[in-house]
Design brief:
two-stranded antiparallel sheet, 9 strands, globular
Amino acid sequence: MNKEQELLRKKSPVQIKNKKAAFEYFFIEEFTAGIVLTGTEIKSIRMGKASLVDTYCTIINGELWVKGMSISPYFYGSYNNHEMKRDRKLLLTRREIARLASATKQTGYTIVPTLVFIDENGRAKMDLALCKGKKAYDKRQTLKEKEDRREIDRAMKDYK
């Protein structure tokens, strides 16, 4: 991911993050995919009414699907409102899907959504990561590092 893409993500008015993913997994490789949505789903995402808690991705018949993603029904939607937790197709190139498929066949590797954002053209995009699960001692180490950073920030705040 280059600096320009990073800036666009930070400028996005909507950033729905999967905070638990960084704690539970080591990120090996990251991808950005488009999401196939219906009319009221994109409106709910633009309002920030989505959640990536307990989501994961799977490859079915050469297509990448996100499962467990929750998008709240659109408030102004009528009879044609969408289902809250349906499987949604992700758009990646065949080469990227093949690379992910071969990697996930290895034990311990999975594909996890990390961020949903709106790009400069108004389309919903999702950042995915090829991940390897952390052991309990890795998680303790992550908590220790987080606590240390927090203490340093407090000390710097008091110093000013």
